[in-house]
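Supplementary Methods. Inverse-folding protocol.

Structures were first reduced to a discrete structure-token string of length 360. This string, shown here, constituted the complete conditioning input.
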């Protein structure tokens, strides 16, 4: 979980105001209102969950892509049914959020009828935090797998050049009365967005996150961005990243093998691929039994004996769900420099600036 800036620097924004801001800027840049609302909801969902690296602070980099003509603000993804349980979305270089949202909605519809639905998405863009797709499935009562590939940031094991993406692996399952299961993890020691955030905020990073251009460990985010991210678990992390490329890039017909463009590089389209599966949880037993078993799993996990110095055990996704409850009450904290940068984007297109609330 990302650390917060010191309280003196925080400015609080209500989630609805953050969505209004994003919609205004996007529509001002030519994004159709319906698509702008989807992007706004996904970006604010990341900030609500404490995944600040993938929230509304991404707006300037996305708008730079639109202005540069490498992300098509007006594009409408199209959908093609391949079998009764398989479909493909061609994003036509629209926002990854819009294409993946359409893909997961179709996967859910197919799963409702046939038990499972699989959707491949091609020619897409960065879709931010994967967990919003897991939540989209959970909101429809479904289990899910959410894969994407991404731009080179990680070496394959034994290599020293950036080749594979820090491509997140996500999956979800609904529970009964306990917290739902949402695993959403990058296969690196830390997500690259955390390094961008540290750079933005003038903070240092832990020295085991990345190597600089000379292959030395570094705590300087700028030097880390010139070098490579370190995979989690050595060869296992780099293998998971290759797995994301197989399912999202190779299979879909999108860029793969190191050819996805970095979201901060506005020189050419990103051509990201995604792989989405929705599954009914009551395929092999009643829904009631499934949910009771999920609740039991949760209780067994969080109730197990703790190691020394651990106060509480969390289920995957639980810390983020707790953060969301707090931020829905108190607003989302940003730092002044971030709000200033966001306001500049609003000014460019005559949209409403970020409405900052006085309390936290
Ligand atoms: N779209 C992209 O190309 C892209 C690329 C990289 C990362 N991302 C996003 O960046 C985000 C951050 O990824 P990350 O790997 O840094 O996440 P993270 O390390 O903060 O969390 C990874 C997982 O571990 C769980 N977790 C964390 N701390 C825990 C604890 N103490 N106890 C129990 N569970 C715990 C979290 O709930 C989460 O499911 C993700 O939302 C990911 O989708 C997106």
């Amino acid at each position: 979980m990302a650390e917060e800036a010191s309280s003196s620097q925080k400015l609080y924004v209500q989630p609805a105001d953050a969505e209004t801001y994003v919609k205004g800027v996007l529509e001002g840049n030519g994004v159709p209102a319906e698509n702008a609302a989807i992007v706004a909801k996904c970006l604010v969902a990341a900030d609500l969950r404490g995944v600040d690296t993938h929230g509304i602070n991404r707006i300037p980099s996305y708008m730079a892509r639109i202005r540069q003509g490498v992300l098509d603000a007006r594009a409408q993804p199209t959908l093609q049914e391949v079998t009764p349980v398989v479909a493909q979305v061609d994003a036509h270089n629209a926002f990854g959020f819009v294409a993946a949202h359409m893909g997961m909605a179709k996967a859910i519809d197919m799963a409702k009828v046939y038990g499972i639905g699989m959707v491949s998405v091609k020619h897409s863009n960065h879709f931010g935090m994967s967990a919003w797709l897991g939540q989209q499935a959970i909101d429809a009562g479904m289990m899910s797998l959410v894969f994407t590939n991404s731009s080179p940031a990680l070496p394959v094991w034994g290599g020293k050049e950036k080749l594979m993406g820090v491509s997140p692996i996500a999956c979800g399952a609904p529970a009964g009365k306990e917290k739902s299961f949402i695993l959403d993890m990058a296969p690196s020691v830390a997500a690259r967005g955390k390094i961008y955030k540290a750079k933005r905020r003038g903070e240092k990073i832990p020295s085991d996150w990345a190597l600089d251009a000379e292959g030395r460990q570094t705590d300087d985010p700028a030097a880390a961005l010139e070098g490579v991210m370190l995979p989690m678990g050595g060869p296992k992390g780099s293998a998971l990243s290759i797995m994301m490329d197989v399912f999202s890039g190779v299979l879909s017909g999108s860029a793969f093998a190191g050819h996805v463009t970095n979201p901060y590089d506005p020189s050419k389209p990103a051509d990201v691929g995604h792989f989405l599966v929705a599954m009914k949880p009551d395929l092999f037993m009643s829904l009631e039994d499934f949910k009771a078993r999920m609740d039991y799993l949760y209780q067994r996990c969080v109730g197990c004996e703790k190691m020394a110095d651990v106060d509480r055990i969390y289920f995957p996704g639980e810390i983020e769900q707790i953060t969301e409850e707090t931020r829905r009450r108190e607003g989302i904290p940003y730092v002044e420099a971030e709000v200033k940068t966001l306001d500049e984007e609003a000014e460019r297109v005559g949209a409403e600036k970020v409405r900052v609330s006085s309390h936290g």
